[in-house]
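Could someone model calcium ion with this protein?
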Amino acid sequence: AKSHGRNKYQFFNPSMNEGTLERLQFMYDLRRALDENELSLYYQPRMETASKRIVGLEALVRWISPEPGAGRIRMPQEFISLAEETGLIIPLGEWVLRAACNQYKEWERQGMPPLRISVNISVVQFGRDEFVSLIRRILEETAMPPDMLELELTESMVMKSDEEVILKLRQLKELGVFLSIDDFGTGYSSFTYLKHFPIDALKIDRSFIQDVPHGVRDTAITKTIIALGRRLGLKVVAEGVETKEQLAFLSSRKCDEVQGYLISKPLAVEEIEPLLRNGNLS
Ligand code: C2E
Ligand code: CA
Ligand code: CA
Ligand code: CA
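Reply:
Sure, complex below.
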């Protein structure tokens, strides 16, 4: 790793602007974080509205920097887009997928009730030719049951008539993984494509849930997405549920699953294990 660093610093010259320097420093730091295991996954429960049971967990990456004190935990907003720009999202994303599958297997060994784990996939990752074979390899290496791995994709990745994209989605479905569209409603959706895509679930973005049930427009949009999902035979999940009122509304509209601070914030492994053992969060 050190010689790696030296190679990069060779390119330094005084005319380089601060942005470039910061970027190089960031790349160096994130590379080190990957090599030295400073990344960690937090897990946020997903609750089935009808049964009030926890049915899944979303894996969310955290960067735990070794320096003690405040700011020790760096959030994805601070590093995901830079990781995408610098290409480091590839090793990072691979690490996340492996860590999530290994954690599933670890919980299985401990005799925990099985919960599907969902992983956020970056557009940069999905766009690579090797994406499907990477998923296949990770499933094999970790002996992860494919239907217990959910990939959260976004509209911008899949809502194209692009043959390659459709082929990729079909191949992923053949592997048996669960596919969902994350942040649904915020991007460009074509209902025509949606109908033909082998997708299993829609996740309604938090920005719509925020003003439910009082905001007239957001409530109308939320109702429409739930109805659309039902018509297409897709599971519908609401994210960012913070109030009992939101939950009551979503239950009354038969939104299948909810996720948000009302149920639980994302938790570290040691925090979530006792809750999972009890089989509920109350
Ligand atoms: P997202 O996929 O929309 O994930 C949900 C985000 O909303 C998480 O933020 C979560 O902590 C937060 N959240 C959950 N419930 C509530 C709530 O009730 N209220 C509010 N205000 N927020 C809530 P987080 O963990 O900071 O992640 C932010 C984004 O970073 C994620 O948004 C996702 O797009 C991205 N991300 C996180 N982990 C990964 C990863 O492993 N790979 C990639 N490519 N992206 C990731
Ligand atoms: Ca997500
Ligand atoms: Ca996302
Ligand atoms: Ca979101």
